[in-house]
Amino acid sequence: MKYRDTLSGLVFFAIGVTTAWIGSGFYADTAYIPVGVGVLMSVFAVPLMVRGVVGNTMSTSMPLIHHPLRFFVTLACCVLFYFLLPIIGFYTTSTLFVIVMALLLGERRPAVVICVAVVFIALLYGLFAVVLKRPLPVEFFLAS
Amino acid sequence: MKQYMLIGALAAATAASTPAMADDYPNRPIEIIVPAPAGGGTDAVARMLNQYLEEELGQSAAVLNVAGGGGAIGVNQLARTKPDGYTLLSTWNSPITTVPHMQRVQYSYDTLTPIISTSQSAYTMCVSPDFPADNGEEFIAELQANPGHYTYGNDGVGGTMRLAAERIFAAFEIDARPIPFGGAGETLQNFLGGHVDIYGGSITPVLPYVEEGQAKCLLVTSAAPNEALPQASGLEELGHPELETVLWRMMLAPEGLDEERATFIADAVERAVQYPEFQEFLAGQGETLNLVRGEALRERLRQESEAIGEVLDNLGLKKH
Amino acid sequence: MFESLFHALPVALQPDSLLSLVVGTLAGILIGALPGLNPVMAIALMLPLTYGFDPIIALGLVAGIYNGSMYGGAIPAILLKIPGTPAAIATTFDGYPMTRNGQGGLALKTACWSSAVGGVVSALALMTLAPLLAKVTLAFGPAEYFWVAVFGLTSIAVLVGKDLSKGILSALLGVIVGLVGIDTLSGEERYTFGSLYLVGGFDLIIVLIGLYAIPPILEMAEKRNESYFNADSFRVSAVAGGLGLLRNYWRTWSRSSLIGVCVGILPGAGGNLAALLSYNEAKRRAPDPDSFGKGNPVGIAAAESGNSADNASAMIPSLTLGIPGNLVAALVLGALMIHGLQPGPQLFTKSPDVVFGFMWQMLLTAMLLFVLGGMVATRLFAQVLRLPTALLVPTTLVLMAIGVYTVNGNVVDLYVMLAFGLVGYLLDRLEFPLAPVVLGVLLGPMAEQNFRLAMLISQNDASVLFTRPISQGIIALLLIVLLSQLWKYHRRNARSSAAPPSGSA
């Protein structure tokens, strides 16, 4: 039994039914495709569920997440990065992000980390601020 | 002595071009939100104006295209920014006067700081050469005689063209079927391919086909006729000048922008539009200058918004 | 017409035109190679800098960036499994496995040559057949576009990946994502759940970066100690010569280029559809279809010549009719208008040197790729892999943040990208193919809108979808693809049900 197939089949079935159900409330021709797509999705989710239940016992051995700690550390750093971007500015946050993530992921040579971070941010600054003049979140020490 | 005079003259010139301000605005690059995709007509005019505006502001200004929702997405985004004069909006009228009647938005003409309007142009309606009409009056008569028969391509539900057409059709009791395309380019493609009967959209894209005899334009949505389309009648000629619905462009800022900065920007725009290269460009686009500032601009927005609200209500298009 | 064509050649060969081509192509490769930056944005940002110059310089830059980025997108697709541009999705299928097998150099070389070949074929089509092909564009009305979208979506859902129902579910998921937001035909909000952010719908670029770039980065972060790459495989000496490539790929190249040119003349479809259709066709025709997705260079040749062949031909409707075929074409039109040139049928007679000069430039930049592409990619970008993974992960994440932020200048887009990244990661682990999701977001709205437009025009007479000859042709193609694929599944299932499943495409 491939429980993953059954589960993902169930999730798709639920999405399909919800889509069609919400879609049926739309006005006239705005409802055609949402309902159609929702119904189709629930129909195609059925064989997946069935196969998961009655299929042969061979199952995929790949774990969903190889290394949960590093996975969630990376995610948490991203969320923090996005949260701080508009508050303390693009270039400052990005420099900190690169340094902190590199250290957390196990790079233990501070000189390498700082060099790469500074050169990388300098390149970005050259490209976006000098050449392309693209506005990015303003640094906290420059905001008026 | 001569040198001193030169310096004095320079100083005077600088003072004239950047009026003395309490602060040193603008001291960093300005961001101009254009609520339309890169490459379209609104974008082209905004970018063209931007070049000269940068000179006049003495600061670089970057155009940021935030398309979608008939322009509402970009205006919403502007409405959420700080009113410090570093984020401005370069828009056409529909996102301000039409879209709020049809969608939930976070702004209205009342909650944005009006700076200055820049230019305007009319829309046109064109048909293929074998269409049984040769001027505005015959065009209207042909449409009246065949209710529900003809299809006209337009720029979508919240589009100014669609509104202009519906106002005219309502006044003449015409029943034509609107086919909402993504924009003038798509409408033109479907009109040339014979998939719709009537082209409804801006004048510039269809102009080459009029010259080639592949299209004849019979109506413009301004009161006066248009020089580029001699065959087309203006609305005054048809007895309804009050139905004029045109596309016009303006510069706005978020609510609460400092009066001094607003005046500073309006002055800069007013000087920027005087560049001959910009005026030449506008003429090529079939647009004419139209400068209305500050509260007068708000009044213009208010009047148009109310008139359009009424039309949409009658059409049953207003948001429920 | 051919007289003016040759009259314009010296214009395109002027030193300043050539310089703009070289600069544009290099910039294009760079922009394409950085995930998150895309050619549309780059051209939109660079064009204003050129207003003061001769139009041919502005157009040279556009041509360079456009063709260069189409190849540039393949570089991270091959090295990191992250498509640099939407059109490079199909390149990841075989490109990344080749890198893992130590054949990264060959993969880059194949991508470079294939891009160049596709670009050249497309430019030749633009030069010789533009007025003729423009007529084809006009013959496509809403009903025909509906079928094009359905054909693209169905064939990719069915052909990519190992599992029929998973491919279809992926595609449907993409369509649902594409439905979110204001409906352009009625102005009604759909699936917005009261959120003002959702009113605008999901931007394709943001969905793409999330789905395709976040999962490989997370994977890299998880396995940071393992050495992935063998940087020595990128040494130029490890790469086979050009004539050998030509002999191996010329059939694939000609088929894919033809597909790319055909997709290009239809406004709205775009390079990623061309690449995926080309990939599918190459896989279908191959004697060894099972080797696709595991590092078969023919897959790269098909994808890259397909997407590059879309480029110049997408300019056909915009130059001949004044109707932009994609966003880059719209920017070219904008540039012409700013220089006082009115796009449309008279452009060819009024300013032949500019329009034919631009066509030559499209051809020249494609040829420049032969020289610049290999050099830049192998000497410069492959070095990126020498960076420790612990640094590669955060720097790539910063690049992606810039890319997504610059789309709309909105921080919320970053969280949305991350959310799509998690969805992509899960789907990938559950062996759902991701390409159909992206195509669903792109083609779903195209299918829906054109279906409803066709119904509006015909006053709800559904026969309009089946009576016109072009529609019937596309339906026939669709049936062929579907039936042959169903037959294959049937045969495979009958033969053995024990074949171990391998990583999804």
From TrEMBL, chain A:
The chain crosses the membrane at residues 7-26, 32-50, 71-104, 110-132. InterPro entries: DUF1468. Residues 7-137 form the DUF1468 domain. It holds the Pfam family TctB. Keywords: Membrane, Transmembrane, Transmembrane helix. This is DUF1468 domain-containing protein. It comes from Litchfieldella qijiaojingensis.
From TrEMBL, chain B:
Residues 1-22 form the signal peptide. InterPro entries: BUG (IPR005064), Bug_dom1 (IPR042100). Pfam families: TctC. Keywords: Signal. Belongs to the UPF0065 (bug) family. PANTHER family: BLR1237 PROTEIN, TRICARBOXYLATE-BINDING PROTEIN. This is Tripartite tricarboxylate transporter substrate binding protein.
UniProtKB/TrEMBL annotation, chain C:
Keywords: Membrane, Transmembrane, Transmembrane helix. It comes from the Bacteria. The chain crosses the membrane at residues 18-37, 44-65, 71-90, 111-133, 145-161, 168-185, 191-214, 319-338, 358-377, 384-405, 469-487. InterPro entries: DUF112_TM. Residues 18-439 form the DUF112 domain. This is DUF112 domain-containing protein. It comes from Litchfieldella qijiaojingensis.
